[in-house]
UniProtKB/TrEMBL annotation:
Family as reported in the entry's similarity comment: Belongs to the zinc-containing alcohol dehydrogenase family.
Name of this protein: Enoyl reductase (ER) domain-containing protein
Alcohol dehydrogenase-like C-terminal domain residues: 207-331
Co-factor(s): Zn(2+)
Residue intervals of the Alcohol dehydrogenase-like N-terminal domain: 37-163
Amino acid sequence: MATSNPITFPFATEAYIARPNAPSPPVLEPITYSALQPTEVLVSIAAVSICHTDLRAISGDFHLKPPMIPGHEGSGTVLATGSQVTYVEAGDSVVLAYASCGRCRRCVLGKNAFCDGLVGMNFAGSGDGVVRDGDGGHVKGGFFGQSSMSRVALVHESSCVKVDVEDKRELELCASLGCGIQTGAGSILNIAKPTPSSKIVIFGAGAVGLSALLAAKLTSPSHLILIDKSPTKLSNIHPSLLTNVHVLDTSTHKTPTETALAIKALTPGNMGVDYALECIGNESCILAAHACLDTLGTLITVGSSATAKLNIGIGTHLIRGITIRGTHQGDSVSRVMVPELVGLWKRGVFPFELVVERFGFGELGRAVGEMRSGRVVKPLLVA
Ligand SMILES: [Zn+2]
Ligand SMILES: [Zn+2]
């Protein structure tokens, strides 16, 4: 469907540009989009939240290297659509998530998070000349199909998730559902699928871990344990999130075994847990998460790392019937998971707003500092 929108290209706006070896966080710079491709959508950004993967990309520690526009948890209003776009039209409210092809075997099976085209569509960047900076230099867009740290973003249609929101403030808040929160929630709701008799431990009190905690509370598990080595992070968690939760500060722990024993001590007969979610991507935590499992338990590695390795003796692993499962995006199909989480939030049973803190759109530097200090879990830059 061709758009009748009067928007024309080249289209000029402002975006954060991560520069190679930059000593400080990116700042807003003028950019120009050369054209709107048939499968692309132009979105006026209402808000974009910051995920740790943005920080990795900004520092050059990710597949898509600077110069690039970060941002992969955006929300906004559709301004214009490419000639082959059918899912959204101008004026629609959308949350932006990862992109997928929708046609490969994985996508057809509802496993879009493992799309055959995942790397190309999310981490390869847009083509040469599609996005240019104020000096005419090439800048890569298309990060997670969206590069939404921009006043107006050029996104792949598959990244768009239509959401039913009452006003702009709700649309802004929903930006944060696009990656970290659907990853944490999906790891529980799509993979672990605990029962009321389940024992669960979650490593990491960041946005992913706390979202997993919120989702786990929906299932009323018999034992729910949250672990972090940062007393600052743990003390900043809203108290209402921690009802019926065992909180374990591991800042003084010397070994993974010490942490595993402390977790087991919180379970009946010191038997350990059924599900351990590692939401950090830290080798010691992965070892502790594996060692604290009860027989037939499952370790789910949720946190990402470019360097962490798994070194586990298969003897005890085998005889205890342990499962190790990796996940991307908590196996979430965004057009299913995001509206579900919005619905749960409206019912008051998934209060994810308690992990989000608002900043001005131009305050990326301050927001990153607050995030790194552990004082803020999920900064939201509001346009
Ligand atoms: Zn696919
Ligand atoms: Zn992310």
